[in-house]
């Protein structure tokens, strides 16, 4: 009934030595205790107001007790605001940390420093109604609209109706300027210090950095072009980009077009850092991830963002004159955009590309060890791209795998790659496993069949247009099968192992199921074609259960 | 016995053939009996209150728009009495639930009262708590228009909710007036329904009030001197010229020559003086009144300095805002209770919760801007010096004498004396020249919340927890007048510029104006919704501003007792208010770390045109909000030259 439960009264009674308090008494006392508490608190609030405070202190309660001619409670001094701690496990229960103090400890302790004496200082809060910008006054907002510009505008309006665009003065506060300089210095000089990590954190979290974004985007573009052979700096710059992108208080959209070129440069540049000594593959991977995250986040704002990006990348990928490092970057960038992009853009070109790549990888044909290594890299990334795509397919339609897709291996249950370095394979498989499913779903166009999503449309057409002679057969097969709803497997170009047998059995299946089977067949085709190209390496991307279906 | 009488009566009526009377009697009898039985039943049934009130509430909220606000006014007293009835009948649990269910409706208007009443948990508390007693003993008076009243009565009859009917009958008096319902803005009376009866307020506010300025003040003399030297007489001044004033006019002439000679030196000053005068004549010169107290005469050199200040005064308006000099108290450890600044800003005093009073002489510390440096040095040196030399090195003079927290300090007009009031029930007078205590005034029985020197010095007024305000003269240790009438603590006090009145603000949410000669209440201002913390009266003596705990600022016309509609000026307590010297600006300082400047001239004009009771009154116009870094503003003071001084203790926050 009252806020004070009767148990409290019982506890208090026990603490002062009354053990046999009848329940009636405590029940009657509880409401009265609450009433007195309220009374005293109200008086205490009065005292607080007269002390010109808004925080109630123990002194106020003492004064209130004094007003009522009640002896004050001793032992509660409060020179400073009391520090309440939150009780663990309770959301709104707080307590004072009131330790028991050992008397001896107190006596032995050295005298505390005398508190600073009260002093009065003066400053101008306002001069003729305007607050001067001095440290004693609260800071004015970072960006102040230039008042002179406004006035000039009005003046012009009176004389001539010409719409003059005055140069907008961008006022950057001193603090922000210092911040910018400091960050720049860190990027260029001390990117390996823990301070840089804090700086990145600040870039990712702090509000009020928006005025600096144009400066940062310019800085990044500038420094990337200047430091293409300095890998640490490039890395630092990319990390700055990542932090800026993740800052929720910054509207980075208007500056994306300035940032994208620098990032893509890091992704597909011919030479990044020292070719031999530096691990330039890492920065390409990193840039690919950033690019993908940008597309994910701002794709809906700039609908042509992804298409432009894929166009650039596919150009780099399909140009045989480009270096292998560039190919690698392009493949990484495309595969980071999701399995569907891989399926639509890489896989059709895969076979031809493999023909190109094959000689580079073989010991007898390519004598340059560096080149050969690069080729293997590219091969690995292609495998990864294809594999993740396959994985995605299979994961989407796990139950519909067709049993007759018998593939030409039977015994090899041990999944090992003989021709790839071990570590690479591990990395790739781990990557696929960790790819979040949502990402795939988000990027994966709904119609995995012919209806390309609008964002991918131009890119695909351009890609097919750029090399029509090579890949016509595959493309047309893809289009054919889906648009007509016919599952006839006419394209024998790549896969000749499976599908035809299956096809015969499925003709009678209802239309509803047909689509599903098509997907399934797609997966089957995909697998077989990939197997044809990569050999057994591709099996690492198939989960054991599904694998079972195939076998 | 009774039945026999009844029978006899009936027999008599029948015999005489008074058939209609007989039926009427029967009807009345039956109604009485049913009433009695149902009332007794309702007592046993607590749920009836809950249901009855709930229905009444929804009915009132669903009523026609134009009558709703009048009908809603009925709800609050009904709510309170239902709650109290439940408590009185011992239905604690039900009373609690009832209170919690419906309290939200009234929180906006009556939060403070609700907080108090919430604690009532047993019938004995009803007896004990003053507010509850007031409610139980007094009838609430509610003004309703004819139609609203009929609606209400009709509803009560139709629904047969006897619990509600009983409560309304017992505790509410309706004052029915014909015609249309009053507008919502007229709702000030709804705020404080109980205790201070509206009639009393109306009666008090009928009294005559001489709000004009003192005749023969320094300002007036200066004005006259100026006008005479210009040979352009202003009518208003002429009226004030009476027989016995002639002597002083000659006196004024003397001054005028002095002024003239100075005016030649700088014409700019003279020009500003002229504009000031022309402005004031435009805004109708306030009438002059005689002082009812025998006031001290200023010594000539003091008068000279005032004249000097008046000549150098900066004209403030909504376009020319004042400069604000801020005194920040550092390292107060939450101990600064009050502060005050002398007229010229050279002395700053603070009253502390450790019973001490400290005065800083800003002139001695040096340039205000560099004030912190010498102090900092002192602070570092203190460790090395002995206590004796420490005394000398201290940048302030320490006044010790009180035995409880000091709640207010006030400088005399020329800063040679300082008053301090404390929770030890005393007021002490200190000499700032000697740094010593001169007198201790004992009279109040409870902590003295506020003490203020009169504008002319010599007299001072105090406000106390004992619900009285007292008037003292510095040379007597007994109060000259005791002003009793407030229903709760008197929290603040302020002098009218003509020294014939003081105003007091109280925790009973009213402001009263007292005649110092008779000690009677001359005005009662009802409208605040929480305790009044600060008061200021415009220099022309016509308007008063008051600020309360919720951050509301109200502006009142003293002569009519009406107010400009209140505004929520701050988000927290308004600690202090100050009018600029011409009365064009109002400055307010609050616990939300803001100094705000308000335009008075526009709202005054609105108030004047509003005299004939027109539409909604205009609001105060905010001119400027000046935030401090983290310093609640305790004190504001306009110097005679219209420089605004502000003071507050830096709050360290966490």
UniProtKB/TrEMBL annotation, chain A:
Keywords for this protein = Activator, Nucleus, Transcription, Transcription regulation
GO (cellular component) term, any one: SLIK (SAGA-like) complex
Q: Name one GO biological process term.
A: RNA polymerase II preinitiation complex assembly
Q: Where is this region: Disordered?
A: 418-499
GO molecular function ontology, one term from the record = protein heterodimerization activity
Biased composition of type Low complexity is found at 457-468, 475-496
Whether Transcription regulation counts among this entry's keywords is yes
> Is-annotated flag, keyword Ligase?
no
Q: Which parts of the sequence belong to the TATA box binding protein associated factor (TAF) histone-like fold domain?
A: 2-68
**According to its UniProt record, where is this protein located?**
Nucleus
Q: Which Pfam families match?
A: TAF, TAF6_C
- The source's superkingdom equals Eukaryota
SUPFAM superfamilies under this entry? ARM repeat, Histone-fold
What are the TM regions of this chain, as residue ranges?
Answer: none
Q: Which family does it belong to?
A: Belongs to the TAF6 family.
Name of the protein: TATA box binding protein associated factor (TAF) histone-like fold domain-containing protein
Species annotation? Rhynchospora breviuscula
Automatic annotation (TrEMBL), chain B:
Q: Which GO terms describe its cellular component?
A: transcription factor TFIID complex
Cite the entry's keywords alphabetically. Answer: Nucleus, Repeat, Transcription, Transcription regulation, WD repeat
**Where are the annotated segments for Disordered?**
222-287
In its UniProt record, which GO terms are filed under biological process? transcription initiation at RNA polymerase II promoter
Q: Where is the composition biased (Basic and acidic residues)?
A: 222-254
Q: Tell me where the WD repeats sit in this chain.
A: 329-362, 399-440, 441-482, 483-524, 525-566, 567-608
TFIID subunit TAF5 NTD2 domain location, by residue? 44-172
InterPro entries for this protein: TFIID_NTD2, TFIID_NTD2_sf, WD40/YVTN_repeat-like_dom_sf, WD40_PAC1, WD40_repeat_CS, WD40_repeat_dom_sf, WD40_rpt
Q: Subcellular localization, per the record?
A: Nucleus
Q: What Gene3D superfamilies does the database record attribute to this sequence?
A: TFIID subunit TAF5, NTD2 domain, YVTN repeat-like/Quinoprotein amine dehydrogenase
- Top-level lineage group: Eukaryota
Q: Which Pfam families match?
A: TFIID_NTD2, WD40
Coiled-coil spans in chain? none
**CDD domains associated with the record:** TAF5_NTD2, WD40
The UniProt GO MF terms for this protein read: RNA polymerase II general transcription initiation factor activity
The protein here is known as TFIID subunit TAF5 NTD2 domain-containing protein
Species annotation? Rhynchospora breviuscula
| Taxonomic lineage from the root | Eukaryota, Viridiplantae, Streptophyta, Embryophyta, Tracheophyta
